[in-house]
Amino acid sequence: xxxxxxxxxxxxxxxxxxxxxxxxxxxxxxxxxxxxxxxxxxxxxxxxxxxxxxxxxxxxxxxxxxxxxxxxxxxxxxxxxxxxxxxxxxxxxxxxxxxxxxxxxxxxxxxxxxxxxxxxxxxxxxxxxxxxxxxxxxxxxxxxxxxxxxxxxxxxxxxxxxxxxxxxxxxxxxxxxxxxxxxxxxxxxxxxxx
Length: 194
What we know:
This protein is an all-alpha fold and 194 residues long. It has one domain (2-187). The chain has helices spanning 2-36, 41-50, 55-65, 70-99, 103-118, 121-136, 144-154, 158-187. α3 packs across α8.
C-alpha cells in the first residue's frame, strides 16, 4: 500500500518536470531559429516572453544566455509578457463570440476556454490573490496567458485582472531570473549576470 501511495505524488512531479523539459527544449529551438534568422538579441527575449508556449520561462534564460544585462532582460521580458496578454483581457470574449462562428476558430476558442475553466480552481478559491498566484507560478500551463483567459472566463474586471497579471508577472520574473542565474552558473554557461 505505501508504495502505491508514494507513487502518485512522484508521478505528478514527473509530469511537471517532463512539461518543463519539453517547454525548455521548445524555447531553445525557437531561440536558435530566431538567432539563425538574424533577429537582434533583445527582440529574441521579447518574442520568447510574448509567446504563450514560453513566456518568461523562455525569455529570461534566453536573455542571460545571449549575454544581455540582467536588468534589461528582466524589463524586456516583463513588458513583453504583460503587453502580449492585454488584448486577451480586452477582447478575448468578443473575439470568441464573433469569430467562434467559423468552425475552425470555434474549435480553437472552445479548447482555449475549456483549458482556462479547468485551471480556474485557485482563482475560485482565493479570488484576485489566486489569479496573481496562478500567474506568478512559473510552470507549464500557468502564467499570464492562461491567467488572462481565466480572468475572461470568470468575467473579472479588466483593471483588477491587469493588476493581478502585472504583479504575477513581476513575481514570476524574479523567480525565473533567480532560477536561471543558478542553473546557468551551475552549468557554467557564459552570460551569468553580475
